[in-house]
Amino acid sequence: VSVTATVSPLLTKLKRDCATPLPVLEEVADAMSAQMRSGLALDAPTQLPMIPTYVQNLPTGNEKGLFYALDLGGTNFRVLRVQLGGKEERVIATEFEQGPIPQHLMFGTTEELFDFIASGLAKFAEKESDKFHLPPGRTREIGFTFSFPVKQTSIDSGTLIKWTKGFAISGTEGRDVVACLNEALKRQGLNMRVSALVNDTVGTLAGAEYWDNDVMVAVILGTGTNACYVEQINAIPKLQGHVFPSGRMIISTEWGAFSTSLPLTEFDEEMDAASINPGEQIFEKTISGMYLGEIVRRALLKMAQVGGLFGKSVPQKLTMPFTLRTPDLCAMQQDNSVDLQAVGSILYDRTGVESNLSARKIVLEVCDTVIKRGGRLAGAGIVGILQKMEEDSKGIIFGKRTVVAVDGGLYENYPHYRAYLQDSVTELLGLEKSNNVVIQHSKDGSGIGAALLAASNSMYK
Ligand code: ADP
Description:
The chain is of the alpha/beta class. The protein folds into two domains: 1-53 and 211-444, 3-Layer(aba) Sandwich (Hexokinase, domain 1), CATH 3.40.367.20; 59-198, 2-Layer Sandwich (Nucleotidyltransferase, domain 5). It is 45% helix and 18% strand. Strands 1-11-10-9-12-13 form a six-stranded mixed β-sheet, sandwiched between helices. A five-stranded mixed β-sheet has the order 4-3-2-5-8. Strands 6-7 form a two-stranded antiparallel ribbon. Helix 6 (200-209) packs across helix 15 (445-456). The termini are far apart. The structure holds adenosine-5'-diphosphate. Residues 73-76, 222-223, 289-290, 326-327, 330, 408-410, 413-414 line the site of adenosine-5'-diphosphate.
């Protein structure tokens, strides 16, 4: 029996389970709109947290002075400083540094993690060059990007709801992460002040809007995923009774928690059950970078065990979670050679399997199936947000140019994923509406965005 004959029923089933034809996309987009609405309602326990960010004013372009940004989001930690020159000069100078977050800190204590970022910031601040100027007597202000679900209580404070993206640090939940950072800054002897606490979607929205006033939505597709958008205060019943002069607020949807109507496979279910947060973040587990490689590995493992995809034996390495990573899928899908040499060597390096040409072709189909579902569902989520905004005020989205700013390592580096996302948006909106909707890569806007928000919320204003 040829391998293809034993594996092809499994491949067919995978494709069927992952299929995202237009009706499925529509159902997901509609469910996203509906879940957003219930998340905004008064104390309803719902899927989507729909967190008010207390960011009411987006950057105007008039921001001036020296500001810092500090970003803790997933795999990396970034620090940045920017000298802003107002409407005319805009961004006069920036400097930034980044580095990986050591694995052990993801499972350590709150203090260890915050000491690590405070000391990174201290080292960076020491190297400030003379391109940057702070008026005498002032404290350096920071925009702190913290990309985990936070219950925000003001623009510069908020408590952690839960860790995601593989972080499992006990004792942080329920604590004010700005206070945690301030204490660590004090331990470092560093005199700086957090003026704005945001997540990376909010930073991206602010950073993109600084250059283009039509930006209304921002999406991150990296290790994890989230989206935020500009909402009208009168459409946020759970903020009733408070006065917000601007009449608008950015809402962080925390859409990673979405789970309605998603086409899921046995591999998604197994991966979820084995995760540190079973039953949670199902949309995130279906569309974001941390998980796509692992879903493919689980599908290949079954094809190897049940269908003999890689011959009689199954290497130990293929049975180990997360040995295949999303960037590996991307590299394999970029192999255009006749014998798929690169596919073969990536598979061998990561999972220890030896593959012939027909097995490699199947592997590529598995990658494509999982990436296609991810990109198309992400697109449906975006349309769900746009639809909700349009329903509330006709014409604000589809009646004019509207920009969705997207950033994150997955979107940035994986052309197939990006193309599937765009296809899905175009299919759902139809040609006419999709002409007005621009999905735009907003590279590294989040850091500057956080610094801009620190400027608009400066204590010296
Ligand atoms: P964060 O960890 O803060 O989300 P990024 O936005 O840079 O940081 O996203 C990093 C993630 O992007 C990685 O975990 C990985 O899943 C994905 N990624 C990075 N490079 C690639 C690539 N070449 N192909 C596909 N995905 C990639």
